[in-house]
TrEMBL record:
InterPro entries: ATPase_inh_sub_z (IPR009945), ATPase_inh_sub_z_sf (IPR038293)
Name of protein: DUF1476 domain-containing protein
Length: 106
């Protein structure tokens, strides 16, 4: 009987972990979409859906968020837009908070 309780508890923790990771993924994807919209506006890009998919895909290059930062910095540099990493990092953080708040309301 105690093996069953342990198994049930273990399954509940696993299910909670999967749910938390899925929620985190949705928040990050939403953050990246918001970031892409902001960057696309600065870059003068009208292909927002395509650009957003590029930004979201960049997040899968390496663990962490530096890959998105590097992509945006490269895009800004190629477009001749002078913007520092700190500004982009601050936007990333602000959009992450906004995406998190939005997901809490859903």
């Amino acid at each position: 009987m105690s093996g069953s309780i342990f198994t049930d508890r273990e399954r509940a923790f696993e299910a909670a972990y999967v749910q938390q990771e899925a929620a985190r993924f949705r928040v990050i994807a939403r953050r990246n979409r918001m970031l892409a919209a902001w960057a696309a506006d600065l870059l003068g890009r009208e292909d927002l859906e395509f650009y957003a998919s590029e930004v979201i895909a960049a997040d899968f290059t390496h663990a962490g968020h530096d890959d998105v930062l590097k992509k945006l910095m490269r895009d800004f540099a190629e477009a001749g837009i002078e913007i520092d990493e700190e500004t982009v990092r601050m936007k990333m953080q602000a959009f992450l908070q906004a995406a998190s708040h939005q997901s809490e309301r859903i």
